[in-house]
């Protein structure tokens, strides 16, 4: 069966569990790097509760879930920023699934979702400590650019043109 990627409601149990895992990992990594500790549990809960994922709901966005042999193991989101630009966000795979090719499949699914939303380019931001993410994006043809936002947690910004040939958009 292998890897599959499909649309998921942001409020599904699967999506909520993946959002919690993603947020916990990126928050803990930031705090460990900058303050030498994991995220305070109360702060972690506030952060998780602080995003309902509304920006990832059609028609302006889409949440995708990666599954391996049917088991949900990762996610990615896209949201329209303007008529031709979408942002890639929440790209995540459980640690035990990394290095198995799923990240490339997940990002390809997100690129297809962005095309389906009408985007001709996809932008994203990431942090310096997320070295593996930066390597992935460069390997997949993303180019480092000037900042497209003022996120406190962003150190690197990337962009990729989404070539859309007639009839090339796949349903997700």
Automatic annotation (TrEMBL):
<dbReference type="Pfam" id="PF00583">
    <property type="entry name" value="Acetyltransf_1"/>
</dbReference>
<dbReference type="GO" id="GO:0016747">
    <property type="term" value="F:acyltransferase activity, transferring groups other than amino-acyl groups"/>
</dbReference>
<feature type="domain" description="N-acetyltransferase">
    <location>
        <begin position="17"/>
        <end position="163"/>
    </location>
</feature>
<dbReference type="InterPro" id="IPR016181">
    <property type="entry name" value="Acyl_CoA_acyltransferase"/>
</dbReference>
<keyword id="KW-0808">Transferase</keyword>
<dbReference type="InterPro" id="IPR050832">
    <property type="entry name" value="Bact_Acetyltransf"/>
</dbReference>
<protein>
    <submittedName>
        <fullName>GNAT family N-acetyltransferase</fullName>
    </submittedName>
</protein>
<keyword id="KW-0012">Acyltransferase</keyword>
<dbReference type="InterPro" id="IPR000182">
    <property type="entry name" value="GNAT_dom"/>
</dbReference>
């Amino acid at each position: 069966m292998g890897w599959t990627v499909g649309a998921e409601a942001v409020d599904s149990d699967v999506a909520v569990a993946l959002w919690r895992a993603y947020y916990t990992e990126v928050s803990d990594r930031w705090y460990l790097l900058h303050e030498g500790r994991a995220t305070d549990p109360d702060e972690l809960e506030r952060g998780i509760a602080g995003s309902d994922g509304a920006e990832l709901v059609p028609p302006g966005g889409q949440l995708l879930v990666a599954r391996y042999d049917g088991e949900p193991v990762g996610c990615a989101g896209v949201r329209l920023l303007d008529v031709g630009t979408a942002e890639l966000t929440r790209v995540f795979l459980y640690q035990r699934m990394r290095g198995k090719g799923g990240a490339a499949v997940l990002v390809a699914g997100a690129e297809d979702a962005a095309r389906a939303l009408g985007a001709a380019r996809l932008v994203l931001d990431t942090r310096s400590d997320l070295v593996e993410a930066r390597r992935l994006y460069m390997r997949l043809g993303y180019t480092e650019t000037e900042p497209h936002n003022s996120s406190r947690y962003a150190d690197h910004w990337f962009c990729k043109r989404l070539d859309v040939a007639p009839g090339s958009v796949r349903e997700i």
